[in-house]
Amino acid sequence: MSTFQDLGLNDDLLQAITDLGFTKPSEVQEKAIPILLESETDLVALAQTGTGKTAAFGFPMLEKIDINSRTTQGLILSPTRELCLQITNEMKQYGKYCKGLNVVAIYGGSSITDQAREVKRGAQIIVATPGRMKDMISRRLVDISKIQYSVLDEADEMLNMGFKEDITDILSHTPEDKNTWLFSATMPREVATIAKKFMKDPQEITVGNKNESTNQVSHEYYLVNARDRYQALKRLSDANPDIFSVVFCRTKRDTQKVAEQLIEDGYSAGALHGDLSQNQRDLVMKSFRNKQIQTLVATDVAARGIDVDDITHVINYQLPDEPETYTHRSGRTGRAGKTGISMVIVSKSEVRKIKSIERIIKKQFEKKEIPDGADICEVQLMSLANKIHNTEINHEIDKHLTSINELFADTDKDELIKKFFSVEFTRFYNYYQKSKNLNVSESSRDREGGRESGRNFGGKNDSTRYFINVGGKDGFDWMKLKDFLKEQLNLGRDDVFKVETKDSFSFFNTENELKEKVLAHFTDFKHEGRFVNVEVSENRGGGGRRDRKGGGRRDGGRRDDRRGGRRRDDRKEGSGNRSERRRSDSASKPRRSDSGGSGISRPRRSRR
Ligand code: AMP
Q1: What is the mean pLDDT of residues 307-336?
Q2: Ligand 1, residues 3, 20, 304, 306: which to mutate, most atoms within 8 A of Cβ?
Q3: How far away, in angstroms, is 201 Cα from ligand 1 center?
Q4: I want to staple 273 with a disulfide (CB 3.0 to 4.6 A). Which of 99, 299, 379, 408 is the partner?
């Protein structure tokens, strides 16, 4: 193992490295730095984020550029604003003793004039996102015609995000004889094509295997019914009281909903996705970095720039569409020498995807069981006990001790401990004591998504699906309809589920025992002057045909709606009202302590 001195870095950089507390080079640094220092060469480096790759290209670039010149000599392209800012920040830290160094970040969502002014002051190194860079070039606000070193960081991500044309355009403004250093976590065909197109005989280094996930991360999957996804997420969080996690969802909408639901259920969570303003995203990231947010729910695109070293868990709430994306997700944990766990919540229809991911990351997943309520209660209780044990005494309490002692004069130690713990524990216990087993066996014949197995575990169908002759045209979306039904029937949030609205009619479920009440209530029932008819639907799972003897207000065009609904439902569990299921699963959940992780998770009071 070499040292930073062995790699041949100059004293200014070595001093900065000492200040940063880096004791030895990481693998990618050990491999890349000597090559880049010793030769004028192109380089393809396959390395995950978190392996120290910024320094692997950063140190050589800082060593090689002429700081006395104000000409832009180094250009680093990165996929996101967050990453762009992180790289800029790292480069500034690495080069803090390089007098006269000016590293400028160029990215969208911030004043282009300010950035142009910064560049004009003489930026030897520009770190940029492709979109803004292209914009600045076309407005002649930057001159990259004398670039000697260009870096394509997270090249696979940039291509995933559709920056291929922008990159091509940007590089066409740089000199032919520059060196290009391409860093990528994975090596899909597109990256290989780019390497071929823009690079001359690049040297290649690989940290770990191509596309392989880091050794620091273990991979687990949990098989549940699709409609239990949200509950599974909560249990995984509750079973790990000190979790500091990123939860990945597939869409912006799901990301927002899961985050909102977690917040509503008392967790310290935040959403990060492209529909948020830059300011909102900055605030969320700041809170996450400061650990005010324990769970960050994010889309793949928004999470690209996340560079937080202490993430303990990555939770794949839904699997990504592209198996390669999993490598990026799991790479958010196990950074900077730490270990991490990447968890996947899968339904039966998705479980085969685990195999293709295993092939890509060249690692085996461990199939694990979602912990049951008793396990979680125990974990939480012991976590609280440990926290209390390790708590430093606040002697401000001393002056109140006499009164407290008086109050507890007749209470022995065991009783006192039990009472003390019960303050937090009972609410949690109440929530989990009747919790069901969420695990699904891979060989079980239950249909995925809980459609066949109904609400309860045990494979029995205990829920009834209803048709109701109101829908979107009547001003109902699933949330409004659910609220309407709950109000009419005087039911709790968990009692009406799988609500699915079509244009002119809708479906919903309740447990079987509520069937009589539901049908009785909607017999000869009028709402806003029209008859609202509820009947039992034939299709128990979701959408589809119903056992209808007429009576709906509208007909004609509705038939198409019904067919459309059925097709959608049959196609993919959770596609229509995934969020609905999540909501319906989430009533009366354990609520996190407001005390910033100082105690046990707090169960929310049950309405049932
Ligand atoms: P990166 O892969 O460049 O995003 O780096 C991940 C993290 O590791 C950053 O916080 C770096 O500051 C840190 N880091 C980089 N090189 C080293 C090193 N040799 N020793 C310890 N930490 C490092």
Answers
A1: 86
A2: 20
A3: 28
A4: 299
What CATH number is associated with residue 504? 3.30.70.330
Q: Are residues 366 and 378 in the same domain?
A: no
Mutate to test the pocket of ligand 1, among 90, 151, 207, 338 (most ligand atoms within 8 A of CB): 90
CA distance 339 to 499: 41
What pLDDT shows up at residue 208?
A: 62
Residues touching ligand 1 (Cβ under 6 Å) are 22, 25-26, 29, 49-55, 307, 309, 335-336
Q: How far is CA 590 from CA 238, 264, 430, in A?
A: 8, 11, 9
The residue behind tokens 């509208």 is 554
Q: Which of 5, 54, 83 to mutate to test the pocket of ligand 1 (most atoms within 8 A of CB)?
A: 54
Q: Does one domain contain both 95 and 196?
A: yes
Split into its structural domains, the chain has a count of: 4
Nearest-CA neighbor of 585 among 262, 142, 210, 352? 262
Which atom of ligand 1 sits closest to the CA of residue 49? 2
Residues 476 and 511 reside in one and the same domain = yes
How far apart are the CA of 478 and the centre of ligand 1, in A? 47
Greater confidence, 595 or 26? 26
**pLDDT, tens digit, 9 for 90 and up, residues 66-119:** 999 999 999 999 988 888 999 999 999 999 999 999 999 999 988 999 999 999
What is the model's pLDDT at position 25? 93
Can you state the angle between helices 578-585 and 478-489, rounded to 10 degrees? 40
The tokens describing 164, both together, are 């291929």
Angle at alpha carbon of residue 528, lines to 522 and 534, rounded to 5°: 20
Distance from Cα 50 to the centre of ligand 1, integer Å: 6
Atom of ligand 1 nearest to the CA of 24: 19
Q: Is residue 11 part of a domain?
A: yes
> Confidence class of residue 540 from pLDDT cuts 50, 70 and 90?
low
Q: pLDDT tier at 462 (50, 70, 90 boundaries)?
A: confident
> Beta-carbon neighbour count of residue 434 at 10 Å?
10
Residue 305 pLDDT exceeds 80: no
The SS3 assignment for 295 reads: strand
Does 523 lie in the same domain as 383?
Answer: no
Among 12-16, 301-305, 318-322, the minimum mean pLDDT is found in 301-305
The verdict on residue 592 lying in a domain is no
Whether residues 16 and 134 share a domain: the answer is: yes
Nearest CA to ligand 1 atom 4: 50
Whether residues 337 and 381 fall in one domain: no
What mean pLDDT do residues 373-389 have? 86
Q: Which helix (H) or strand (E) holds 169?
A: helix 164-171
Which of 87, 151, 335, 338 has most ligand 1 atoms within 8 Å of its beta carbon, as the pocket-test mutant?
335
DSSP assignment of 443-471: T--PPGGGTTT-SSSSS---EEEEEES--
Does residue 224 sit in the same domain as residue 156? Answer: no
Note whether residue 474 is domain-resident.
yes
Q: How far is the CA of 33 from the centre of ligand 1 (A)?
A: 14
Q: Quick one: tokens of 154?
A: 């997270």
Q: Which domain holds residue 461?
A: 455-550
Question: How much is the pLDDT for 146?
Answer: 95
> Whose C-alpha lies nearest to ligand 1, atom 21?
22
Report whether pLDDT(553) > 70: no
